[in-house]
Structure formats: C-alpha cells, structure tokens
C-alpha cells in the first residue's frame, strides 16, 4: 500500500529526440578548433565567421583564445580555421597569399557539394545550386563553380531562367529532400540531359523527422539552439506544426516553471550546433522537477511508515497479549517488512563492505555486503553459507538483474560470491540475501571508475528502444542512436546481442542514469590509427584497404583510419562507365599510393598501376601490318576509335577509312560495328595504335589521265608510289601521318 502510494505520484517523463545536438560536421569542426588552439598556444587562432550559430559555444571558444574574424582583412598572422560551411576557393587562395596557416574544417558533405558544382561547370552543364544565396555554405559552393552556377531559392525561381539542353543540380546540404525532388521533377521533362548530385545531408532529414515524431508523442517540446540558428528555428517550426506547445530556447535558464504545469511528457530536441552540455542542462532541470516531486512523495512514505509502526506498538500495548520480548520482535518485524518493501522498490543500500569471520557473526546486520559460499542450488534459488547460524537464501529474483530461469546459469556449487543481506530472519527464520544488489553496487563502482578514468568497458546490447539501444552494464545503460557508431546507423536492431566497447559519457547514480558511447571509442581508435597510417604512408607504396563508398567519379578506400580516393581513371587500363564495374563496397583491395598530402590529409590511389600494362603486352603480341578485329567505340570529327583488345583503342583516321573521299566517319562505320582493320602503327610509349580500313579495300583503278595532266601527274605518281611502299611496310611516312592524326585528335 505504501509503495503504491509512492508510485502513484506523477513524474515528468523526459524524452530526448533520436538525433539532437551536434552533427558530425560540427563536432568535427569543434574538435579541429580545440586541437589547433591546444597545440598552438603561441599563435593567434581565428575562425572565419563564428564557428557555429551558438553564442554559448562561441563564448567558450573565446575563453580558449579562439577569436572570431569576420573577414581575412582582420587577420595578420596565425591560424585561420575554415568553418564547416566552407568558403569559396578564392578565400583559401587569399589566406595562402597572406601566409596564414589554414585549417580547413569544411564538412566533407559540403566539400562534396563544392566539388560537384565545379565538376558540372567543367563538364559544360548549366549548373544550378538549390539553396539560400545569403547562406555562407551556398556562397562557398557558388565560388567553387567559378561563380557560373545559378542559385535558386525555390522552384518558382526557375520561371525566370531559360533552361539549356544539359542541366546539372546540387543542393545546399540542409535543404529539404522533398522540395529538391519537386524541383528535379519539374526540370526533368524540360531538358535533354539532367545530372543531379543529391548533396543534401541525411543528418538534417533524420533530425527533422525524429523531432516531428517526438513532438507528436509528448505534451510539450523544447527545441534547444541559438536563436540565430536557421536549422534550430526550422526544427521549432516543424515541432510547432504538430500543435504540441513548442519553445525554442537557447539555455535551460529560459524555461518557465508554469510551462510544465499539467504536462507529463516532455520532448527535447536540439539543432546541429547545440552542444551536449546545453541539452544536459535542460534534462537536468527536468530531473530536478522530478526530484522535487519525489522528495514530497518520500516524505509521505516515511510519515506513513511511522504511523504503521506506532499503530503496531499501540496494538501491542492495548492487548498485552505478549511478553516484552515478543513485543519487541513484532515491532521489529513490522518495521522490517515496511522497510524491506520500500527498500526493494527504491533499491538503496548501505554501502559498507563487510568481510566476515567467525567472531563477526553477531555483528551481521541488514544491508551489509558479505562474501559467502554457494552450498545448494534448487529451482527456487540458492543457499549460501555466510557463516551465520543458518545458511542465507537468495530467491531467483534476487540472483540477477536479468530474468533467471535456472540458477545454475548464474552460480555454481562452492563458488564464492558477494551478497547483500536483505533480511536477517524472515517469518520462517530464513536469512534473505541478494546477489543482484551486490552486483548492482559493484556495477556502479565500475561505471563511475570507468567514467572518471576515461576507460573503455564492454557490454552486451539487450534491446532497441526509441532513440537508441539498451546495454547491460550490470545496470541498465543507454546508448543514444547518434553514439552507436561513427555516422548514421540505419538498423539499430542489428546491434542487439552484440558486445560493444563503450565509453561512459554520463553517470547519474541518483537518477539511475548511465549514458554510453561506442562512437567515442571508435573515433579515438580511428584518430590514433589515422595518425599512424598517415605517418607511414609514402608515395609509390602498395597498401591494402577496404572500399567504403563508391561514387560516380571513383571510390573511397579506407586505409586504416583515413580514406584515400581512387579516381575512376586510375581503376582500369580500359574504359569503364562506372566504378561498380571494378569494385564493390566492403571489398578488400590492394592499391598503389600515387600521392600523399599529409597536411591536407589527401591521398590519391591507383589500382591499374598494379595490373599488367595492356599497351606493353599489345606491343609485344602485335605488329604493324597485322590485320586485327575490333569494335568501333566512338566516332569523332577526324575518324573513329576501335577497341582492338580490352583497354586498347586504336584510331582509324578519317583518311584511313576508305579509298573514297569520306566527309564524316559515319559514312563508313557506326559505333558498335565489329570490323577488321590493319595495324599501321604501334607506339606503346605514347599509348597509340593507328589502324586502317582503307588498306584492306581493293585499290580503285586509277582514272585515265588526260594529256594535259600527264606531265604534272608524273611527279605525284612517284610520291604515291612512295607512300604505298611505306604504307605496306609500316614505314616512316605512315608513322608521320599517324603522328599527325593523333596530334589532331588530341
Ligand atoms: Fe555537415 Fe550535415 Fe552537419 S552537412 S555540417 S554533417 S548538417
């Protein structure tokens, strides 16, 4: 009854959104700034613009001597940090000219958007950037497009643009995927060729949809983040649209108590530039609210306990049925029963550790932790000899914090275990013990120690819950979804049953709250590995790596904490349309290091360099004058290319297509045709093969000469005889011609 009364008190349920606070790009930028400030105490460190839209974080960075400069003109020397929004290449250039040390913390996703915009412009596409032209990120992407791209804020902006045949699109990373899709759907029917790079960052999408879902489920929403942060304002709008009362706050201090009146469920989310400690402050405040309520309810329990004890004592006095000794026992039993119920519910115990000896028996008391030996295991529990007058008994439910079906799964005969004494003697004279309680205390000690010493602990994932995973660290631990791995995890349930290596990032023993992170362990290991890999990496080495991502222009290969780029042109000697023809994600691969820029942490890799050079093989196997079969792969103004072997394409110059006069190559051949051709030149060094169809045709009869042209033709006759001879022998004249052909071709 007393316990029910305690439970009936309504407490605030506080739920934090699955994706809240720093995104990967912002966290990375902050780490880079702190590292730069820590390692360069003697230099001025500036961020070009506030690092993030959060005044509290900017202030904290200022305390660490990181200043904000609004332009390069304000910086004379030292380090300039490019924030995650990125900047136009010309700014980097100017910083170089000023001899500043540049630390580029541009988010890799933003870097991609810049790269794709530049690629589209280079390839001659009419290039569009979908984004807000005033946003620094968009200005950086625009700069990367050499200011040739057209920025559109919404689809209506397209009405004033005349679309060309070949159109390309990139988007600001924080734009909504739906509206980008709308724009693409509009353009797709209007143009001949459309190339779209979806550069929208998944984090934003996940953050917004998890905020919306949470807002639909709670009574009140707090959206934490700078009032000047566009992404936090957007989050607040999304939550408010669900009709749940929503407050956009910068810090916990802005919360008014009356907002919480009548509310049971509180939802919390935060923008990408909101640090964890600001979120924690709000959660803490909610817990304080709960504590206030709990203190009240605990006081009620104590009052009622006293009442019951008094009632028992009164009854004893009035009836005078028992001796003084009995009265004392009954009172003690009544007290014990009340205390045990409350104690089991709240699970608080005295922490004093007690190691017994024969002489200590008389000192055993409830709440002590003692060591004993397992002497019997049965279906109901376990008997333990703690050197008391009777063996103590651990009921199944007190063996472990997990459900137990068979006590043998937890203990074995003669094993020494630690237990806490719950009751010295129950109604039947049994001593009741709890191994669960002893383990629970041990677990907390281990967690607190790991937290203080920044140690790694291992724990099994027991289930997936909203917003993360539950792990068994002797008590219930929680891993927020954003801390399960580096990057976004699609299927959290895949981790259930796995043992993870974790860092404790938050401990509140009073609130039974342990928050852990696998990401922090992985990040630290990755950083150490990266440092080692970079230090040992040299141009020309052959190294092993794993394909992490395939993109249109190549593949990213993890070399151990750091990724290198294998460009599509370095994958194969032959022509390939897509990197997936050669590699697949997750594949282990050997690659050659073509270039290493340790400062900018850029590594370029090659795969074809480890494969036999088909040109050398071709030159060994084939000879000038040989007739080979091949497939026409491409027609150009000056002839046609023919693939004669995998990776080897030769040129049939337009003059070698036929004896007849040929204006365009398609008069003689088409792409896909399989034809025989004569090799008239091989130059393996220059990777060139000259081919001729003409030489396989019968030579037409020479036209009858008119008397007037006789004399002039005699000299050309000797010339053509010379060429004919050279042609059949693959001699110098043909080589020169082919040389010219290639020069023209290029
Ligand atoms: Fe980068 Fe996405 Fe954050 S683009 S800065 S990870 S929101």
TrEMBL record:
InterPro entries linked: LytB/IspH (IPR003451), NA-bd_OB-fold (IPR012340), Ribos_protein_bS1-like (IPR050437), Ribosomal_protein_S1-like (IPR035104), S1_domain (IPR003029)
MF annotations from Gene Ontology: 4 iron, 4 sulfur cluster binding; 4-hydroxy-3-methylbut-2-enyl diphosphate reductase activity; metal ion binding; mRNA binding; structural constituent of ribosome
Residues where dimethylallyl diphosphate binds: 53, 85, 135, 229, 231, 273
Amino acid composition bias (Basic and acidic residues), ranges on this chain: 694-707
Domain S1 motif intervals: 367-436, 454-519, 540-608, 625-694
Binding residue positions for isopentenyl diphosphate: 53, 85, 135, 229, 231, 273
Domain of life: Bacteria
Sequence positions that bind [4Fe-4S] cluster: 23, 107, 201
Keyword terms: 4Fe-4S, Iron, Iron-sulfur, Isoprene biosynthesis, Metal-binding, Oxidoreductase, Ribonucleoprotein, Ribosomal protein
Record's catalysed reaction(s): isopentenyl diphosphate + 2 oxidized [2Fe-2S]-[ferredoxin] + H2O = (2E)-4-hydroxy-3-methylbut-2-enyl diphosphate + 2 reduced [2Fe-2S]-[ferredoxin] + 2 H(+); dimethylallyl diphosphate + 2 oxidized [2Fe-2S]-[ferredoxin] + H2O = (2E)-4-hydroxy-3-methylbut-2-enyl diphosphate + 2 reduced [2Fe-2S]-[ferredoxin] + 2 H(+)
Pfam family, one: LYTB
Pathway membership: Isoprenoid biosynthesis; dimethylallyl diphosphate biosynthesis; dimethylallyl diphosphate from (2E)-4-hydroxy-3-methylbutenyl diphosphate: step 1/1; Isoprenoid biosynthesis; isopentenyl diphosphate biosynthesis via DXP pathway; isopentenyl diphosphate from 1-deoxy-D-xylulose 5-phosphate: step 6/6
Biased amino acid composition, Low complexity: 708-718
Residues at the active site: 137
Positions with biased composition (Acidic residues): 299-351
Entry cofactors: [4Fe-4S] cluster
CC terms in the record's Gene Ontology section: cytoplasm; ribonucleoprotein complex; ribosome
This protein's record includes keyword Ribosomal protein: yes
Cofactor: how and how many bound: Binds 1 [4Fe-4S] cluster per subunit.
Role description: Catalyzes the conversion of 1-hydroxy-2-methyl-2-(E)-butenyl 4-diphosphate (HMBPP) into a mixture of isopentenyl diphosphate (IPP) and dimethylallyl diphosphate (DMAPP). Acts in the terminal step of the DOXP/MEP pathway for isoprenoid precursor biosynthesis.
Family assignment from sequence similarity: Belongs to the bacterial ribosomal protein bS1 family.
HAMAP family (UniProt xref): IspH (MF_00191)
PANTHER family on file: 30S RIBOSOMAL PROTEIN S1, SMALL RIBOSOMAL SUBUNIT PROTEIN BS1C
Name of protein: 4-hydroxy-3-methylbut-2-enyl diphosphate reductase
